[in-house]
Design goal:
Elements (H helix, E strand, L loop, with lengths): L5 E6 L9 E2 L3 E2 L9 H8 L12 E2 L1 H4 L10 E3 L10 H13 L4 E5 L3 H10 L7 E6 L5 H7 L6 H13 L3 E6 L7 H8 L7 E3 L5 H10 L3 H13 L2 H11 L5 E3 L1 H7 L5 E6 L1
Parallel strand pairs: 2-5, 5-6, 6-7, 7-8, 8-9, 9-10
Antiparallel strand pairs: 1-11, 3-4
Length: 271
Amino acid sequence: MTSKAMKKTKPIFGTKEWAEKNENLISGCSHDCKYCYAKTIAIRMKRKTTLTWSREVLNQKALSKNFRKRKYRLMYPSSHDITPQHLRENIMHLGKILAAGNEILIVSKPHLDCVISMCNTFNPFKENILFRFTIGSVDSNTLKFWEPSATDFDERLESLKYAFNDGYQTSISCEPMLDTRVDQVIDKVLPCVTETIWLGKPNKLIGRLSMNGFKNDKVTMERARRLMKSLSDEYILNLYARYRDNPKIRWKDSIKKVVGIEVSTEEGLDV
């Protein structure tokens, strides 16, 4: 006996809010962000451990992959970052995607040297590229605490300015917000953003930190609790009131749920 296929709607959240499909080339990430969702998944699936996650391993099969033109924008990467260690391979992979005529969203906690190399290499494909740089705070000490081996605020801002001045489409992800100084992030980046600034709370922060090896780290867990308390519903509602009419501000699902915005949905088949 077979069940009848029925249409249903599914909430769109996470990377699906940005691109229908994503591509990756590397297992692990040397930035080793404490809250990383990709690290949590890799540990849960027993592909990595808390100790091996920061070791970047190139996926040779993915590197040899060829691409065809898609009707939708691709996001790259979604489960690692573009770091100096494998910049050459990342550029090779991106080059194949772009050469097939695809539009691509490049997401990164950017290294300036990497951004300069990508901008110089992909100049002929400029119209097909949107950079989205993650900046969760203007405080480099805060960034260092949560994202130990990623770049500081100044380097991320310089990367944004470089891509913008070179004529690329630019955007910002302030997800997760790592403190309550998001207004300062917006003020600093807004002049160099051609598209959007996405705001979002840390998702499942306590659970992810526990899985990622910080369950018994009293300093990290206490700071996480303080962060979530500071990003209260009252704070989020006031934040929304300040920026609801700004056409460049976008809200991730973690904020939409607080302010009562309907989360976008897509149709799927339930068989």
